[in-house]
Amino acid sequence: MERTPTGTPVGVDDPYRHAGRCDHLTSDGRCRFALERAAADPNFAAERRATGYECIAAAENAEWCDCPHYRSTTDGGECRRCGLDEVRMAHDDARPLLEEHHLSYGAAGDDNDPAHEITVALCRWCHAKVHEGWARVDDDAGPDAEALAAREKRRSREHAEFGFRTAAERDDRD
Questions:
Q1: Which stretch of 109-118, 119-128, 129-138 has the lowest confidence by average pLDDT?
Q2: pTM for this predicted structure
Q3: How far is CA 64 from the centre of its chain?
Q4: Which terminus in the chain has less CB density within 10 A, N or C?
């Protein structure tokens, strides 16, 4: 199983099995990295320019991991392990229900580890279980009771904000 630099497990054997489309891929199949950040890797940008900025992984028999600048980060909508969905409260400093969990920690130029950033969203409860080493990202799991309670508490607050109250009801002065 893959591990963090400090040795804790990340909960997967192959991060690419959980990776999505590249964050740099445009809707028309071009590489946004080469288009917008050419100075960061001029040789890569020149190669992409010669092919009309076509994404490397878009080529026949290619895979995401073939691109040196591949990156797949989470949208943070729901926990990849248990399915708990995020409920964020505006103007609230409460800790998010979901956290970004890195599946790969490789350093650029290190042949033993991938240099690609691959993240998924995990709820705080699943995230702790994965890093403690007794859970995997692809386990068939449901949300913890504590996680459901935290989500429902936020939903109740959210619904309360939708309710209409007259000025008289809001004014404590009688």
A1: 109-118
A2: 0.79
A3: 16
A4: C
pLDDT at 107 > cutoff 60? no
Residue 131 CA to residue 137 CA, distance in Å, equals 10
Sign of the CA dihedral 45, 51, 56, 62?
negative
Q: How do 117-123 and 71-72 pair as beta strands?
A: parallel
Residue 121: count other Cβ atoms within 10 Å of its Cβ: 24
β-pair partners for 121: 100
Cβ(87)–Cβ(79) below 8 Å = no
| Start-to-end Cα distance in the chain | 65
* Residues whose CB is less than 8 angstroms from the CB of residue 157 and which lie 6 or more positions away in sequence, other chains included: 89
**CB 79 within 8 Å of CB 123:** yes
Cα 73 from chain centre: 4
Q: Which amino acid, 48?
A: R
- 28 SS3 class: coil
Residues 146, 162: Cα–Cα separation, whole Å:
25
C-alpha closest to that of 97 among 131, 148, 133: 148
Q: Residues 59-89: pLDDT tens digits?
A: 788 888 889 999 999 988 999 999 999 988 7
Where along the chain do its domains lie? 1-19+73-164, 21-69
**Rounded Cα gap, residues 55 and 33, in angstroms:** 10
